[in-house]
Design brief:
2 copies of one chain form a homodimer. Chain A has 135 residues and is mainly alpha-helical. Helices cover 51% and strands 10% of the residues of chain A. A 3-stranded antiparallel β-sheet of chain A has the order 1-3-2. In chain A, strand 2 (62-67) and strand 3 form a beta hairpin. In chain A, helix 2 (19-30) crosses helix 4 (46-58) and helix 3 (35-42) packs across helix 6. Chain A is globular, with a radius of gyration of 15 Å. The A-B interface holds A 1, 4-7, 9-10, 12-14, 16-19, 22-23, 80-81, 83-88, 90-98, 100 and B 1, 4-7, 9-10, 12-14, 16-19, 22-23, 80-81, 83-88, 90-98. The structure holds a DNA duplex (30 and 30 nucleotides).
DNA sequence: GGCTCATTTCGTCATTCTCCGAAATATTGT
DNA sequence: ACAATATTTCGGAGAATGACGAAATGAGCC
C-alpha cells in the first residue's frame, strides 16, 4: 500500500497531462521524429523538448532509436495500454492545436534537407516514415 | 493559441493523474458515494477528499447531488469522453489497489446504518445504488 | 586528437500541487 | 435561534513540476 499500486497507471497519466507532451504524442502517432524536428514544431528550447520526450519515455509510452547524431522517438504501446491509447486518440480528435501541429510538422518534413537540423555534412535525417494510420 | 486548445484534454488528464483521484474514479464507477464514505475508504482528511472530488468535478468527470447534509458524487461521461473512459477502465483492470478499495467500499456500505457518517438523527444515507456495469 | 552539432543532464528559479487543520457554509432537528 | 453534522473554503508549509541556459555527453568527420 505504501508505494501504491496505482503508481504505474498514474505515472502514465501524469506523463500525458501536459500540453507539450500531449502534442508530442499526437505528433508521434503519425511518424517518428527526432528531437530537433519536434522542437521546430513546438517552438520550445531543445532541452525542454528533450526532457518532455524523456518523460514520455520513462512512462514507457515512447521508444528511442539512435541514428548518427540524431535520436528518433516513436510511439510504443506497452502491454495493457492499447485500449487506453485508442481512447486517448478519440480524446484528441478535433482539437485544433493538434491539427495545426500536424500541418506544421508536414511543413518541417517538407523542408529542403538540412534546414531543420543544421546542414550537417553527413547522414542527414533524410526520412521519417509513416508509422501509423492517420486516423 | 495562447490559452492552448489542448487545455481541456490536459485538464481532464491532470484530474486523473493522481493516486487518490484515480482511486476515487474507480470507486465511483461502481456506485455513487458521499464524501464521508469516500473518506472512509481512502483514509484521508475529509477536506482533502472534498478537494479531490471538486477537482474531478471541475474536470467535468463527476456530478454531484445533494441529499440532506450529504453530497453524493457520481460518474459523468461528458461528450467525447466515452471512448476515453472505456480505455481508462482497461488501464485500471487488475490493479490490486483498485480491487482492494472495492472490497473496502463494500465493507463500508455494509456497515450498520449510521456508523459511517455519524449516527445523525435524521435522513441517514440509507442507500447507494448501483450506477454502472462492474465490468 | 580536435571540431561540429544533436542531445542529455545539471542548476536554478518560479509556479503549481497536495495535504491538513481551522474556519466558514449548509442542512436538519429541537 | 441553537445545536449537531457534512461539506466546502481558506491559509500555509512542504513537495513536485516546468522552463531555460550552461555545461556535459555522444557520434561522426577531418
Amino acid at each position: 500500500m505504501s508505494p501504491s499500486t496505482v503508481r504505474p497507471a498514474v505515472d502514465r497519466l501524469k506523463a500525458l497531462a501536459h500540453p507539450a507532451r500531449l502534442r508530442i504524442l499526437a505528433l508521434l502517432r503519425e511518424e517518428e521524429l527526432c528531437v530537433c524536428q519536434v522542437r521546430e514544431v513546438l517552438g520550445m528550447a531543445t532541452s525542454t523538448v528533450s526532457e518532455h520526450l524523456a518523460g514520455l519515455r520513462r512512462a514507457d509510452l515512447l521508444e528511442e532509436r539512435r541514428e548518427g547524431r540524431w535520436v528518433y522517438y516513436r510511439l510504443k504501446s506497452p502491454d495493457g495500454t492499447k485500449a487506453f491509447l485508442d481512447g486517448l486518440w478519440s480524446l484528441l480528435e478535433g482539437i485544433p492545436q493538434v491539427a495545426q501541429d500536424r500541418r506544421a510538422c508536414a511543413e518541417v518534413l517538407r523542408r529542403p534537407v538540412g534546414t531543420v537540423c543544421r546542414p550537417g555534412p553527413q547522414p542527414r535525417p533524410e526520412r521519417a516514415r509513416r508509422a501509423a494510420a492517420p486516423r
